[in-house]
Every structure is written in C-alpha cells, then in structure tokens.
Automatic annotation (TrEMBL):
Entry annotated with the keyword Lipid metabolism: no
InterPro entries named in the record: Acyl-CoA_DH_C (IPR013107), Acyl-CoA_Oxase/DH_mid-dom_sf (IPR046373), AcylCo_DH-like_C (IPR036250), AcylCoA_DH/ox_N (IPR013786), AcylCoA_DH/ox_N_sf (IPR037069), AcylCoA_DH/oxidase_NM_dom_sf (IPR009100)
Domain of life: Bacteria
Acyl-CoA dehydrogenase/oxidase N-terminal domain boundaries: 44-110
Upper classification of the organism: Bacteria, Bacillati, Actinomycetota, Actinomycetes, Kitasatosporales
Identification of the protein by name: Acyl-CoA dehydrogenase family protein
Signal sequence extent: none
Length: 409
C-alpha cells in the first residue's frame, strides 16, 4: 500500500486521480519539491505498471501535474514559480528517485515554461493558457518547414517523442525551406533551424517505443505531412524574447537532465544499503554490514556519486550567476555544465552496474527487485546525446581553442 498526498491509502496498481485546478497546485519551488518528495514512494510502487504501460498512465500524469511539475519553469509574471536551473534539477532528481521514466517525462514536460520565453508573450499565453501544460517533442531539425504566407507547411517524422502520449503542446524541429530550397542561417552557415509548436493531435503517433529501458516514457515516433504552423508558433533558440538565465543561453532545456542519473544513483545506493542491514553472505556467513568487500564497494560508489552531484550543482550555480550578471564566459565556463552532465550519466550507469553485480542473482528478478529495471534504465538513458562520447570531442575542441559546433555551448 502507498499514500497519496492527502494520506489516503491506495493500491500500488491504481493511483487515485484527483481534479487538478491551478489554485490547488503548489506555487513555489519549495512547495513543488516537497510535493515531489511525497510522490516518491507512490512512483516507486507504480514503476512496474508504468513500465508495462509503456507510457505514463493518466493517473500518474495527473499526480505530476497536480504537484506543479509541469509549471516549474513558467514565468513569475504569469504566476508561475520560474524555478532556477538548480531547482529544476533537484526536482527531477527527486522524481527520478521514485521512477526514472516519470522523471524523464517530467524533465521534458516542464520545458513549456522555457519555450514560452522564445515566443511573443501574447502568443505564448494563448498557446499555454494554463501554467500546468506539458511540453514534448524532438527539437533537432529532422523535419522540413516550407515557408508560405503566414507561416510554414511542416512535414517530417521525428523520433523520441518522450511524453508525447500525454503532452499538451508538441514540438518539431525543422530546417526552413523557401521555394523548395533550404534557407541558410548566416550565423552558422547551415540550414536555418526553427522549432514548430502545435497540438499533439495534429500529428500521427507511431508506436515504436519497444525498448530495454525507460520503457514507461512513451518515447514514440510522430509524423505529419503539410501541417500549417503559423509563424508566431515557431521559434529559434538564437532569438529569445524573454531575458534572463533561462533564455540567454540555449542549453536551458538540457541543464536539468543531470537530475535523472543523480536520482537513479541515489535510489540504487539507498536500496543496497538497506539490503546490507539484513543480508548475510551465503559462502562466508559474514553479515553484509561487516563484509569488507561490501563496505568498500558502497563507500567507493558513494564517493563517486557525491563527486558527480557536486560537479553538477557547482557548475550550474556558476553558470546561473554569470548569466544573471551578464558576464562573459570563457571556454571552460561554457562547456563545464555539459561535462558535468555527461559525467553524471556515466557515473550513475557505473554505480548501477556495480551494485547489480554486488547483489548478484537476486538482482535479476523484475518483480522482487528494482535492480533489473534500474540497470536497463541506466543503459538506455546513456544513449541520449548528452551522455555520448561525442560530448568529449565537442567540448575538448572548445577547450583547445576550437569553435563550438554545438548550439548548446
């Protein structure tokens, strides 16, 4: 059994859904984080159901919406909490401790507040009439947007639509064309990249998400042909309308991602430390709590997680302070958040692998141990671009005096 935020007992297989009104949703960073902490055991108990569903069930979406997760980045002058990048990361870290797929969808869902800052504000208010609307979509330019009067005709197929099965606004990254020819961006020398925003019902959803890990994220493909998108419902990350740390650097949508591996690593370590209080080594008869091998492994992994976590929050705070002040950032400052994020993903995967081996045969049972799911989630999440070795090449090039070929640092 588990409890909802009101304390009512519910089965792990069915979360009681309550009506979400804007007045009932927490409004501050502290209140949203507190509500997320309350959801952790409930998310953990529903992890198997989330995975089997291959998307977030409606009642789980309602809980996240009611906890204020999707409004996290909404601007203060709209009545939103406008969490800093550090606060957003802590929020995602907290949710990931309960369920990784729920955290992945939450991480993307709260981009609604960030995207709103790249649109004319009257248009943004119409596109996001509620603070609690969830965003989704693949922003890299896999589609084509042909310029026509008043906007674009959008065609293409996009992958990894995490959360698109429950989102309110769906994004699609496109290369702009005019009269059949690509429009070149003079700043990059490449095709002009714009992100198109439209209701998810405008697209055809294609059920491709049969995966090893992050199975509950519903990261299906979606496609469309000749969808008209008004000019004002599109944006470029190079042209923020709002000013401030969430919009003055285009990597704002990536900064909070490190919360996912940090929450996963913390959950796995806490789980094994709880096991150690009761477990005895079968061969030697030594209690795990007094087993040198177990002690050393746990201490080493705690050290690695602590270091990775410190790097994430230290670099985020340094970046945030510099952006608030409008300070110039050198090569080291521009890439350090990307390196800390990459390191957090790789560290979490290493932690889960080591603990899976430490626990041994008991790890392989899906229904009695979370280790199997965490192992699969850890491997799948590290296939994202932010955790690939290409990040080392891109950042190393900048550190050695080269020009960044990434729009995000």
């Amino acid at each position: 059994m588990s409890t909802t935020t009101t304390g009512t007992a519910v089965p792990a297989t069915a979360v009681t859904e309550t009506a979400v009104t804007e007045t009932s949703v927490p409004r501050t960073a502290d209140a949203i984080l507190a509500r997320a902490r309350e959801l952790r055991p409930l998310l953990r108990e529903n992890s198997a159901r989330i995975e089997e569903h291959r998307r977030l069930p409606e009642d789980i979406v309602a809980l996240l919406r009611g906890a204020g997760v999707f409004r996290a980045a909404m601007p203060r002058d709209w009545g939103g909490p406008e969490l800093t990048s550090m606060e957003q990361t802590r929020l995602i870290e907290t949710i990931a401790y309960g369920d990784v797929s729920a955290a992945w969808c939450s991480m993307i869902g709260m981009d609604s507040g960030i995207y709103s800052g790249f649109l004319d504000q009257d248009v943004a208010r119409r596109l996001y009439p509620s603070l609690d609307l969830a965003q989704s979509g693949w922003i890299y330019p896999q589609g084509r947007a042909e310029r026509v009067e008043g906007g674009y005709l959008v065609s293409g197929r996009w992958r990894f639509g995490s959360g698109s099965t429950h989102c309110d606004v769906l994004a699609a990254g496109c290369t702009v064309h005019e009269n059949g020819e690509p429009v070149i961006d003079p700043a990059t020398g490449k095709g002009l990249w714009r992100v198109m925003l439209a209701p998810p019902r405008s697209y055809e959803s294609i059920d491709t998400w049969h995966t090893t890990g992050l199975a509950g994220s519903g990261s299906v493909d979606y496609e469309v042909r000749d969808l008209f998108v008004p000019q004002e419902h599109s944006f470029s990350f190079a042209e923020p309308v709002r000013k401030g740390p969430l919009h003055d650097a285009p990597d704002a949508i990536l900064r909070k991602m490190a919360g996912i591996p940090l929450g996963l690593g913390r959950a796995a370590l806490d789980h094994v430390r709880e096991l150690a209080a009761q477990r005895v080594d079968r061969e030697t008869g030594t209690p795990w709590a007094r087993d040198v091998r177990v002690q050393q492994t746990v201490a080493e992994l705690e050290m690695e997680l602590t270091a990775a976590r410190a790097a994430v929050y230290t670099t985020l705070e340094r970046q945030w302070t510099a952006l608030e002040r409008g300070a110039e950032r050198g090569a080291d400052e521009r890439v350090e958040t990307a390196l800390a994020r990459y390191h957090a993903f790789r560290t979490a995967r290493r932690i889960v692998h080591r603990l899976f081996d430490l626990v041994g045969g008991a790890s392989v049972y899906r229904r009695s141990s979370p280790m199997d799911r965490w192992l699969r989630d850890a491997n799948t999440m590290c296939q994202h671009a932010v955790a690939q070795d290409s990040i080392l090449q891109l950042t190393g090039n900048v550190l050695l005096g080269g020009r960044s070929s990434s729009p995000f640092f």
